[in-house]
């Protein structure tokens, strides 16, 4: 979802950062009302890898902190460490478990060996928007749902928020005319691995692994023909001028992340603080997913206005893509079943939750 890194001196330790060090001009963001008695406050350190202005930070993370503070009557105070100030995305689970931070940006795709079942939300095909994915996953990840029981509980964390970008589309920078699935054969597309690679393989498309910041130069040079991205990401990474063709109405997967708190920290919180965090999470998941989908529609219109051809696979092509997506999902589930994980049961539960989330 985000692969940006903000470098910082190696000599600056997490302990120093917790003491209030300002890194590279990025001040720590504290959410707390003025005048509140210091002794009544509960300070929570929250960290992620998102750069300034990211769609998730602006529509989910910051509004959630503000709402939780309000619902707690000012008792909950957040110190926010964005942009990898506390560590890389892959390290957030360990940092949360160890207590270096209280709430971490835990992305299952970054730690797939520890949370393999959560990739169900990143599979192609079923969902049509961010709200469907977020609502369905949230219903299974909280309140002792199957994803909480099988993924979060064994890792000694509890999800407080979930975010998923709108379903990814194929975004092409080449001038090659595309009107059918067959026209995609042989193209080289940036993909993030896993189910995305499996999907492209079945379309006879060549998946290429690279970080998002590398995509612009690779597309402009023709090293790759395009990428799998949501339209909001196309805009974020300045790819709109390069885009000649993009699909609409398909779902080539997405990326999902959570903000999770350690069980140890959760156990120490008073009941009223827990209630504020839970209610803020429920309300913010709903408002944020609506914002993501609205911004996705606007970004699609911007692409169209910029001259990009928007292609929707219908009829035989739509049915063929649906079969491919089902094959990828079934293969994913079967692989987990063989490893002693409830892959098929999780896929069934997620599809049922998606149907209810429409």
Automatic annotation (TrEMBL):
Keywords: Signal. It comes from the Bacteria. InterPro entries: DctP_fam, TRAP_DctP_sf. CDD domains: PBP2_TRAP_DctP1_3_4_like (cd13601). NCBIfam families: TRAP_S1 (NF037995). This is C4-dicarboxylate ABC transporter. It comes from Aromatoleum petrolei. The lineage of its organism: Bacteria, Pseudomonadati, Pseudomonadota, Betaproteobacteria, Rhodocyclales.
């Amino acid at each position: 979802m985000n692969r940006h890194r903000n470098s910082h001196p190696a000599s600056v330790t997490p302990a120093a950062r917790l003491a209030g060090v300002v890194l590279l001009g990025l001040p720590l963001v504290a959410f707390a009302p003025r005048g509140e008695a210091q002794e009544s406050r509960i300070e929570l350190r929250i960290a992620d890898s998102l750069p300034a202005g990211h769609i998730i930070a602006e529509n989910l993370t910051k509004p959630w902190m503000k709402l939780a503070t309000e619902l707690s009557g000012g008792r909950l105070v957040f110190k926010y460490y964005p942009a990898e100030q506390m560590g890389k995305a892959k390290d957030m689970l360990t940092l949360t478990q160890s207590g270096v931070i209280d709430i971490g940006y835990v992305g299952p795709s970054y730690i797939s060996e520890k949370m393999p079942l959560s990739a169900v939300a990143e599979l192609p095909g079923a969902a049509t928007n961010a709200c469907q994915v977020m609502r369905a996953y949230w219903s299974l990840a909280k309140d002792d749902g199957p994803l909480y029981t099988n993924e979060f509980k064994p890792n000694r964390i509890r999800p407080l928020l979930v975010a998923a970008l709108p379903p990814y589309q194929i975004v092409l920078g080449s001038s090659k005319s595309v009107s059918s699935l067959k026209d995609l054969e042989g193209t080289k597309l940036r993909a993030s691995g896993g189910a995305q690679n499996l999907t492209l393989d079945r379309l006879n498309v060549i998946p290429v692994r690279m970080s998002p910041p590398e995509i612009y130069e690779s597309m402009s040079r023709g090293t790759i023909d395009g990428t799998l991205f949501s339209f909001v990401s196309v805009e974020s990474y300045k790819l709109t001028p390069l885009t000649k063709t993009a699909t609409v109405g398909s779902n080539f997967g997405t990326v999902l992340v959570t903000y999770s708190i350690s069980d140890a920290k959760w156990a120490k919180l008073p009941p009223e603080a827990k209630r504020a965090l839970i209610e803020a999470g429920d309300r913010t998941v709903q408002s944020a997913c609506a914002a993501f989908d609205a911004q996705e529609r606007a970004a699609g219109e911007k692409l169209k206005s910029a001259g990009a051809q928007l292609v929707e696979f219908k009829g035989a092509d739509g049915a063929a893509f649906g079969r491919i997506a089902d094959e990828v999902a079934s293969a994913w589930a079967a692989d987990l079943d063989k490893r002693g994980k409830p892959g098929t049961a999780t896929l069934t539960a997620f599809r049922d939750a998606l149907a209810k989330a429409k």
